Amino acid sequence: FEGNEVSGNAMDGVVVKAHADPELVGNRIFGNRGNGMYIFEEGMGQVEGNDIHDNESSGVVIRSRARPTLRRNKIHHGSKTGVHVYMDGMGVLEGNFIYENKMDGISVKSGGNPTVTGNVIRDGRGKGIFVHDKGRGVFESNDVACNASVGVAIASGADPTLRRNKITGNLGHGVSVDQAAGLLEENAVHGNAGDGIHVRNRATPEVVSNDVAGSDGHGIMICREATGCFERNQVHGNRKDGITVRTQANPKVEGNLVHSNGGQPINVCDGGLGSLAANEAS
């Protein structure tokens, strides 16, 4: 399917299901009253270079063990989420431009486990990436910028891997981890309006070798009984403390370089606990 216009349908624009494996290249999928694309029941497909916009639900929905490949699509101005992966949906999202959707750029939940690489996810009215309700996924080398809420939110039992992403200029925290796990490694978390990385409510992430700078809040905030490991991060130039541990949080904080922040380099307060070793703090 190449070079078509799919618009004005009473439900979804394109439906792929039951092991179907089409190629959709260079189509415009817009103005449908459901989702732009709905891929489910182990549907597959190569979806490349399409313009998916102004649909009344999400741009692309992937569920029920579907595993499509989405490359170099524009997914924008949807009334809900840009790409929604749930109920064990999988697939590859690579090099897409996901922007100005009314909800989250990418949402992953209930066993969704996509591979998300090299996408631009920006200017949405919700979160840039939201992994929750036991969602997983590997998110590498994405640019998550200027969203109206948190750049990347991880919540409610989710356990994703975030590696080498740029998370910048979002209007909430750069990354939040709430009652969840996850690996955050070698990300650049810069210039966000809240904390750079905010970890709370018994969350247990591994936060390793990230550069956390220029936040309007704290560099890294660990609170409300959160634990986890925070190792070999560079935390600098944040408006408040570099690393704050409070309210019965009990993390391992080791080998971090913390300097040039507006508050304390490392501040353990208000009932905070933790193991601190070999940090360079100034």
Query: What is the total tally of β strands?
Result: 37
Counting copies of identical and different chains, the oligomeric state is single chain
- The order of strands across the largest sheet is 1-4-7-10-13-16-19-22-25-28-31-34-37
Spans of 5+ residues with little confidence (pLDDT < 50)? none
Kindly state the percentage of residues in helix: under 10%
**Total number of helical segments?**
0
Distance between the termini: 59 Å
CA-based gyration radius? 20 Å
How confident is the prediction overall: mean pLDDT? 98
Strand content: 35-45%
Sketch the major β-sheet: 13 strands, parallel
Give the overall form.
elongated
Structural class: mainly beta
Description:
The protein has no helices and 37 strands. The chain has 282 residues and is mainly β. The strands form 3 sheets. Strands 1-4-7-10-13-16-19-22-25-28-31-34-37 form a 13-stranded parallel β-sheet, with no helix packed on it. Strands 2-5-8-11-14-17-20-23-26-29-32-35 form a 12-stranded parallel β-sheet, with no helix packed on it. A 12-stranded parallel β-sheet has the order 3-6-9-12-15-18-21-24-27-30-33-36, with no helix packed on it. The radius of gyration is 20 Å and the shape is elongated. It starts with a strand and ends with a strand.
